[in-house]
């Protein structure tokens, strides 16, 4: 970020708040970058000749005579093949000791894809986890978050999905990631020999929170380069979007905006949508798939962050510890992949949709039976059978340690149906019962 | 209205997409202006005026905009262009033709013509010299896809005109004059196939707007049978995410018995729009045998597109609907989701530092929503023919809570309420329309009751109410069973519960992804409801409650197989007789 000649240096700051400072300046573009005593800042408001700058790392120690230099362009990232295998901070500067990346400089947070130039997502992403592949199949070009409490092993599951997904590039956008989790990802990818296809933009808990706001746009600008320019399959991992939204609320609060639900800014929906909608399948072959993490506070999905996220993303995945089998499972009730209809029964076996629904319905019956049991009522024979079914279904299919292909998952489900139920109780279309009912 | 000299201005302040402009002349509220950004023209709308300062909302990103840039005011509000060639197109919220835009990414300041003015159309005159006409009267007709697209006296024309001449049948360009009218002062005006209209003003070129009364078939049983919507009616679908709003909307857009469908994708996922224009060109419209896309127009302002244009998108869609209604057509307008539009209003109101109403929404939200819903309706045109706009909007209530401002405001405006329930969605009972909470006010209309009695059967309404009552009784019985235990209640409670489950599984639940079950014609709905009610009215003999559950599971299973079979096919009949046999097993003597 060297300064060139002729650049005007301003030194009269008229107002300083916790995150912003204002000064008189002219000819400044909206969203332009600046440095304030060397710290990066961005124009967030212009009123006449008063320009308000948001300083990403905070205003601690900024004097009223700080040197302000405007850079004449919005935040940008240099893109090129050299990005592969590299680790960057939120500003796109290398943190792995390597050299600066040379390449074409692109503004981050660029324009949206024209909806008529998108292709309908149609390529299945196999993860081997039946809770995902069987019940909530993922598709390239999809955007889907894990809704998880902070104690759940979402980072592990996400790393597993990323490695099995056979993506050309995996881009990790870490926001408020603990240093330990950052090292975990680095190790897992390293051990899998995948480091050369990983690109990371990381803001750890040690960095100022407002810097996080740049991470998703950095990650997605890199993703667009590989998916659009290079026609590659790109998987973007964003963790944790709740911390990103928290940073948004800090900024909006300091800008004196009226908060809406849960003290989040009124524009939360649009802010999140701009990120998630970067997920796309290009007709020319490249794609961006986004898997994110939204941490919940004790499972509350009515909070503004998961709520707005749920309306934007194409489904959500819930993890839950099943105490009956002592394993973490993908919750079949609350998880949903909206795009699964595009591939199940088409790229997978024809009975897939019906088997999936029947199994979940029977699992729901089991949970009713369980409630009955807890309330001290007698169980019918059917109740007992559903509970037995549920235990095996959970253990053999829903648990996250399962790693089999979809056809084996379907066969397993039929096996369980045959073992515990009559054909009428399962209620699947006759043509499939004739084909697959275990004899 | 035209001003001699158009007002200009200079940018004075920028806060996200709110741009404050110093103006040098008169400006009007909602006037459109273009802001210059190093050669790119950004469209904006005036939303507040304070002395010499106009507050404008820009329909694009303002990145890089500088104070002092020039602004041109256009002297009119946001307008749409109306004429042949609108059908089957994909527009953005400002009626730019998305297919005509260059490149994969949307570039700001790129505005494309909604209608090809040079396209030629086969014109047939409908009016003749000497006819006295007024706004909305038909002068001629061109064939657009399969519909007779009427060329009308422009809606902006005030008072009565006399037709001086109309072109004879032949091929003309859309922009060519096809008629000459004289106004009361004898001045002559040319009329071409194209006209413009401001989107925020309702088109009222009709004679009368009576109460609607004709059933609009959707093929969705829980709507047609239980909570019917009428041609020209209004309804809304609130539901938490994942409860199936979009699947239901898509089902309606595929199956509803309308001449044309306008889908306003307002602040929703881009992939959902992609689904429509990937699948609709392939799918057949069962009524006309043509492709579904031929009757569908999409207004796509997806969630990543500029926020301010979201509000415009629903108005653009409604205005296009009103235009086609004036041709005597049945229009179905779907907006997904009106909550996003309300949120766009909230973002702007916040930037203008207005005092907020509930949940930080603007205070006039209920008024905005109800005047929008009021634009739908069934009308008699000046020439006696009828046209209609049926409007169904979805609402995405924050946290799934139906007590939030957008849902509450909409509930006051819309007459059908299709509440999607999380609980039903969780147990995969789709469509997850809650049978108890949902309602259709139209069922109380004597006009509709008469229509149903004539067109379906005289006892139809009675059967529907009976089914609704059985569902409620079943729910009560289920609660009792849950409190007292299976053996703590009489067997009759189990029967009541399971009879309501038969209605639930066979009538209410419908597989939107099954070719046959996805859409049920009203005749088939009538037969199935009759059959289900026959079962519900039957007295059964059971010795213990344990026999009830497996027995009714069998009943439901056979019924479902019927739903999956082609109507009146061999399979259908086979399952029907199987069902009769099962019923006879347990029928009380």
Count of folded domains of chain A: 3
Evaluate the radius of gyration of chain A.
25 Å
Kindly state the mean pLDDT of chain A as a whole number? 92
Which consecutive residue ranges of chain A, at least 5 long each, have pLDDT under 50?
Answer: none
> How many beta strands in the DSSP annotation of chain B?
25
Q: Quote the CATH topology of the largest domain in chain A.
A: Rossmann fold
What name is given to the CATH topology of the largest domain in chain B? Answer: Rossmann fold
Helix run count of chain B: 14
Q: Which architecture of the largest domain in chain A would the CATH scheme give at its second level?
A: 3-Layer(aba) Sandwich
**Rough outline of chain B:** globular
On the 0 to 100 scale, the average pLDDT of chain B is 93
Large-scale geometry of chain A = elongated
Helix fraction of chain B, binned, reads 25-40%
| Euclidean distance between termini CA atoms of chain A | 72 Å
Q: Give me the CATH superfamily of the largest domain in chain B.
A: P-loop containing nucleotide triphosphate hydrolases
Major beta sheet of chain A, specifics?
A: 10 strands, mixed
Q: Structural class given helices, strands, pairing of chain A?
A: alpha/beta
Sequence stretches where pLDDT stays below 50 over 5 or more residues of chain B: none
Task: Give a brief outline of the structure.
With 439 residues, chain A is α/β, with parallel strands linked by helices.
Write the layout of secondary structure elements.
The complex is a heterodimer of chains A (439) and B (589).
Chain A: E1 9-10, E2 13-16, E3 20-24, E4 33-36, E5 39-47, E6 50-55, E7 68-70, E8 76-79, E9 87-88, E10 104-107, E11 124-125, H1 130-133, E12 138-139, E13 143-148, H2 154-164, E14 169-177, H3 179-191, E15 198-204, H4 215-229, E16 233-239, H5 241-254, H6 268-276, E17 280-281, E18 287-295, H7 304-312, E19 315-322, E20 327-330, E21 336-337, H8 352-374, H9 381-398, H10 406-420, H11 423-426, H12 430-436
Chain B: E1 8-15, E2 18-23, E3 31-37, E4 40-50, E5 53-58, E6 70-77, E7 79-82, E8 90-91, E9 120-125, E10 132-133, E11 138-144, E12 147-152, E13 161-166, E14 170-173, E15 177-182, E16 188-192, E17 195-198, H1 221-226, E18 234-238, H2 245-255, E19 260-266, H3 270-279, E20 296-301, H4 308-325, E21 330-336, H5 338-351, H6 365-373, E22 377-380, E23 386-395, H7 405-413, E24 416-417, H8 422-426, E25 439-440, H9 446-455, H10 460-484, H11 491-508, H12 522-537, H13 548-564, H14 570-586
Parallel strand pairs in B: 8-20, 18-23, 18-24, 19-20, 19-21, 21-23
Antiparallel strand pairs in B: 1-2, 1-6, 2-5, 3-4, 3-6, 4-5, 7-17, 9-11, 9-14, 10-13, 11-12, 13-15, 15-16, 22-23, 24-25
Helix pairs in contact in B: 4-5, 6-7, 10-11, 10-12, 11-12, 11-13, 13-14
